[in-house]
Amino acid sequence: MTTSPSPAPTPSETPTPSESPAPSESLLSAVGLRVTFPGRHGAAVEARAVDGVDLDIRPGEIVALVGESGCGKTTLARTLLGLVRPTSGRVTFGGRPLDYASRALKAYRKRVQLVLQDPSGSLNPRHTVYDAVAEGLRIHGYTGDERAAVAQALSRAGLRPPERFFLRYPHELSGGQRQRVVIAGALVLEPELIVADEPVASLDASVRGEILALLLRLRTELGLSALVVTHDLGLAWNIADRVAVMYLGRIVETGDVEQVLTAPRHPYTQALLSVLPEAGGDPVVLTGEPPDPSRIPSGCRFHVRCQILASGKAAEEGVADACRTRDLPVLAGSGGAQVACHWAAGRAGVTRAG
């Protein structure tokens, strides 16, 4: 699989992800993160939604967290935001561990903002655009010029002239305009990082490129970092500097976006990419049951659905037994290309993981 996803249409002046700075110190970091939930109907077995994750996001970097529904990526994002307290492990921001006291969390959420998938659901239909954007300022006791701050945020989000939108209601806006209002509501607090959960999933294809271009422009102009949670590898290709592929609570492949998406090493990443129209060839049809966080299999957590194991290729390499019985370590949070796969481990250019 060497064909890359084709980019969505974006303005010619839009900066590319490769132009981002790459400082070495992390802005946001997760180390050994685990989140478990009680089993259904009082069952003794807990659901391991996040089952050991290390992840770093550097200043000015956009990281895409990719995986199918139910893999744990939204729970991981909510944990990084402080909305879910981890069962074990830690989250640090700016080198300091996240403090879960209410006052500390309030200060933290001013610096790290969430952009939700559905702008219609995240905007109060009874609030004007002005009130929707000003809400964060009021919650955090902003004492400056509120009108100027709201106008600046709307302008940065591409709604110009901003005053034209002040008294409008969400139902009077297009889907793209509503998403820009949501983004303005995050920008008004001048955060250092945004967590965008499927930021263009509910938008028409013609609007998606505009929103992606906006996020890239904000990174360039404001030095904004972002974690973009998505199931769409095409979106990751267009916006991210680095990609982390998640499966059943754990990151199974990570690295620079071009390296991972043009030469995927993990069979799961290969399967995700195979269904893109640009991939060519036959899509990989995964067998077995979908992921269940309360029933983590022994060995490689993907082995029960793995096309490499099913085809006999893993046996040819002498790793079939290891795939079924030997667990793989947690990948490091940043650095070069890494893969948690017995079959792929040891191949050129990949950090060995197991």
Automatic annotation (TrEMBL):
Ranges of residues in domain ABC transporter: 33-273
The entry's keywords: ATP-binding, Hydrolase, Nucleotide-binding, Transport
Keyword Nucleotide-binding assigned: yes
An example Gene Ontology molecular-function term: ATP hydrolysis activity
SMART domains the record matches: AAA
Region (Disordered) residue spans: 1-26
InterPro entries xref list: AAA+_ATPase, ABC_transp_ATP-bind, ABC_transporter-like_ATP-bd, ABC_transporter-like_CS, Oligopep_ABC_C, P-loop_NTPase
Statement: the UniProt record of this protein carries the keyword Ribosomal protein: no
A GO BP annotation: peptide transport
Biased composition (Pro residues): 1-20
UniProt EC number: 3.6.3.-
PROSITE patterns, per the entry: ABC_TRANSPORTER_1 (PS00211), ABC_TRANSPORTER_2 (PS50893)
Family listed: Belongs to the ABC transporter superfamily.
Name this protein carries in UniProt: Glutathione import ATP-binding protein GsiA
